[in-house]
Every structure is written in structure tokens, then in C-alpha cells.
Amino acid sequence: MVNFIYHNPTKILFGKGMQHRAGGEMRALGRKALLHYGGGSVKKTGLYDEIVASLKGAGMEFVELGGVRPNPRLSLAHEGIELCRREGVDCILAVGGGSAIDSAKAIAMGVQYGGDVWDFYSGAKCENPILPIGVVLTIAAAGSESSDSSVITKEEGMFKRGSGNDRLRPRFAVMNPELTYTLPFYQTACGIADMFAHIMERYFSPTPHVDLTDRLCEAAMRSILVNAPKVKADERDYDARAEIMQAGMIAHNNSLDMGRETDWASHGIEHELSALYDIAHGAGLSIVFPAWMKYVSPNARERFVQFAVRVFDVDIAFAQTDDIVAEGIARMERFFESLALPVRLSQAGIDASRFHEMAAKCGPRGGLQKLQSADIEEIYKLAL
């Protein structure tokens, strides 16, 4: 186990009706908020009216900026930064999923920065003040509601990159599973793939003597495996939705990677797909992760055997080690397929024409195994 410091200040307000407390929570953060959200679904479901009423009831001034799309764009973040400066905004409320939250984080970093906020997605560290953020979550997926990271796509060149800073963690997150009832199941499934990937990127670690967090990761993955089919069978199953929503938070709040090195190669490899092809992030991960596993597993057989046996119940006497690993990967692919997610690039209409370009932009990556651009190109080929 390696040394670690863990701190997560995000206050979680979990359960039915908690969205009505958003205004009071924001009042503790500032006097004038930016209300940041995505498309029309927030208004169609009535959630927008509830949030506005809560803000007004708490005596909060606010301005709003909608239009966040999946794989959130830098241009909208720029627009939000200028709006906040012009209106004297001192806090941000993101209503939506990971895209709205990540966009809000970009805006929060950029308001008091003299340069382009993209600098922080290009390796520069944000040292300037960051506006405090609150969240009302509408999809269990990215875990951005309590994470220290944000991912943004720059339209010029279609670069999708992340930025991490502990001060990016939202001050509070409202998590009401009922707010996810109206999602199309495909969006729910993509969210499930995203959170499952977040756990695996922590689980496939080269760090020895991490049994506790191994088993926490395994428990979280097994809970997702149990509850995902329940949500598919009944999209208004509150208890199953609650389990999935909590799993999404745990998957990315850094509690599962305490004391261990991580491997984010699959996320980086997928970012090139969703940047160029605008594929849903979770769907890209359900394609990329099995291919990554097939490529790197020969160099970490013991860990992949553990995954197959403990998470997917592959019998340890199933066959030879390679067969156990292959069966574990196959069962994971079948799980994704059961949620109507793609597991091959061809199923998403993506061919090999831009593999070299994507691999060159992506590499090098990896923690469990260091991958160069040539390795990443081979993983794309395995994903066909």
C-alpha cells in the first residue's frame, strides 16, 4: 500500500424531496448563483421550477445558462465564464449529470483566471480562487457530484481532456433517485458502464497489499451487477435506483483508490472516441474496456483471475489461467450487452480509419501497464 491523504468535503443530501433544499444550501455559498443545466428535460420534468422556487425561497439571486450537451464543450464554458464575470456571480448550481457538473467546474475555475481555462485541461495547475459549486444530480453515472475532476472537449481539434483539483469538489450534492426515473434506459445504462469503469480503473492496480480496497471495489461492482437488471425491469424501482446512484458516487469520490495506484488508460482511450465521434461516454467505455483488458491481462494474470473469480463468479477450477481471465472478460461483455450497450466499435458504426490519429493523440497512458501510441492503436483494433 502506498501513502495517501484522503479528504472529501462534499455534503451529500440523499433521498426523496431533497432537491427542495438546494436553495438553502446555495445561500450558504454566496449571494448570486449561476444556474447551469443541459437541455429541455430539466424543464419538462418540472425540476427546473422546483429549483427556481427553492432559490427564490432562500433569497438567492441567480442567472442561468442552459445548453450543456454530452461531452461538454469549451465554448459553452467560455460563455459561462463571461456571464459570471458580467453578472457578479459568486457561486454555481449545476443541475443535471456529469456533463453539466463538469461544465460548471470549468466555469468555476475560469471566472477568476486571467488566461484561458483550457490551460487547466492542458497540464497547468489552477492556483486561483475557484467559485463554490452545488449540484442537483439527475443521472447516476460520472460521479462528478463529489469528484475532484472535470472533463471538457475543445472543439478546435476535438480534444477531450480532464483537469483535477481537490478544490473542484462540489460543496454539496443533492441525490434523489426519483429524479432519474424519466431517463431513457439507454442513458441509465451508459451511466452504469461509466461507474463500473471508474471502479475498474482503480481495481486494476499494480500496488500490492490493498486487500481492503480490493474488496470494497468488488462489493461495489457486484452491487451494480445485482441492481442494474432490476432498474432495467422496472425503471421506477426506487431502491435499485438508490443503490445505483450511491455506487456512482462511491466509484469516483476517491474512497476506493486510497493507498493504491490507478490506471486511467481506458478513459483516455475512450475520450478520443467520444471527442471525434460524439459517442456516449459510457457506450465508448463498454467498447474500450474489454479490449484494454484483453491486451494487458497477459502481463497481470493474477489480478485478472481475481477479478473473474470474485466479481463474475468464474470457477477457479474453470480451466487454465488464461481461460479464467477470458471467461471473466466475456461475462463482463455479456453484462454490458444485457443493458443494450455496444461492446464493439463496429456496433457503433466506427471503423479503423482514424485509429492512428486517435492513438497518437492519446498516448502514452497507463498505470498497470504503460501503453505507448502503438499499443493503444492495437487496443482500438481489438475493439473492432
Q: How would you portray this structure in words?
A:
The protein has helices spanning 22-27, 41-44, 47-57, 74-87, 98-110, 185-203, 211-233, 238-252, 265-277, 281-296, 301-312, 321-338, 355-362, 373-382; strands at residues 11-14, 32-37, 61-65, 91-96, 133-137, 149-154, 159-164, 172-175. The two termini are 36 Å apart. It is of the alpha/beta class. Strands 1-8-5-4-2-3 form a 6-stranded parallel beta sheet, sandwiched between helices. A two-stranded antiparallel ribbon has the order 6-7. The chain folds into 2 domains: 11-179, Rossmann fold (3-Layer(aba) Sandwich), CATH 3.40.50.1970; 185-382, Dehydroquinate synthase-like - alpha domain (Dehydroquinate synthase-like, alpha domain). Helix 9 crosses helix 10 (281-296) and helix 11 crosses helix 12 (321-338). Helix 5 (98-110) links the parallel strand 4 and strand 5.
Describe how the helices and strands are arranged.
Blueprint: E1 11-14, H1 22-27, E2 32-37, H2 41-44, H3 47-57, E3 61-65, H4 74-87, E4 91-96, H5 98-110, E5 133-137, E6 149-154, E7 159-164, E8 172-175, H6 185-203, H7 211-233, H8 238-252, H9 265-277, H10 281-296, H11 301-312, H12 321-338, H13 355-362, H14 373-382
Parallel strand pairs: 1-8, 2-3, 2-4, 4-5, 5-8
Antiparallel strand pairs: 6-7
Provide a short characterization of the protein structure.
With 384 residues, the chain is of the alpha/beta class. 47% of the residues lie in helices and 11% in strands.
